[in-house]
Amino acid sequence: MTMGAKKLKIPVWLVELRHRATHRKTPPLKSLRQGCEAALEWLKEEHWARQFRGHNKETDLKQQEGGVLQRVKKFALQSRNQLLGVLLEDGFLVPTVEQLEEFGCDTSYSASLTEPRLPKKFLRFWLPVLKMVSSPSFIQVFLEKLFAKQKLLTKEPKGHRAFYIAACISEVLLCNRKKGARRKHRIFRKRIQLKGLDLISLCLDAPSISMPHLLQLILDDMEH
């Protein structure tokens, strides 16, 4: 197990943490959170970063990706809130300017503040993880966490973080439409019954430039 981890450049302590979580007593939440961060960082450096830089080792990468995604899924089942906390930190679902430049994405978003969307390349980057952990309960909590994060950013309504948090909310709600969503870039395929009234309350409690757009998406979702 240790030799295999070294060969794939996976931190040995991460493999041991997974072994403890599976076969022994569940590790502390702090350890699980660190494990989530390490697993996601490994995915970025050893798989997706290489993919976007033009490396073409498809078979090996798919095998490595599948194994790590399964570990991320286990972390999500054991500690969903900790995984979401990691995903909403800067450098993950809120990309840095440097990351956007590496993806070849436009770093200017001022023209789309009222109807935010994630850049296609950036969304495609995160789809394997989001698809792996998405479930009706996960998506509902994901949206609630996004709105809670947005509430903390009310003092910077035109800021970088506020835009990408709102864009994540927008993508999830649009994904729940039967038509009009980006078919190739959908986080989940089957429609999910969301708690619309709860989401409206959270949206109103987190005012932003994109709030009218997000409210309309929630109301549209409730009509289906």
Give the number of DSSP strands: 0
Poorly predicted segments: none
Kindly provide the radius of gyration, computed on alpha-carbon positions and rounded to a whole number of angstroms: 18 Å
**SSE class:** mainly alpha
- The overall pLDDT, averaged over residues, is 79
What's the helical proportion of residues? Answer: 55-70%
The number of helical runs is: 11
- Element string (H = helix, E = strand): HHHHHHHHHHH
| Integer count of domains | 2
β-sheet strand percentage: under 5%
The main sheet comes to:
none
Overall spatial form = globular
Euclidean distance between termini CA atoms: 49 Å
Task: Describe the fold and architecture.
The chain has 224 residues and is mostly helical. The protein has 2 domains: 1-87, no CATH class; 90-224, no CATH class. Helices cover 65% and strands 0% of the residues. Helix 3 runs antiparallel to helix 4 (58-78) and helix 4 (58-78) packs across helix 7 (120-133). The longest helix has 24 residues, at 29-52. The termini are far apart.
Which descriptors apply to this entry?
224 residues; mainly alpha; 65% helix; globular
How would you concisely characterize the structure shown here?
By secondary structure, this protein is mainly alpha-helical. It is 65% helix and 0% strand. It has helices spanning 2-7, 12-23, 29-52, 58-78, 80-87, 97-103, 120-133, 136-151, 160-175, 196-204, 211-222.
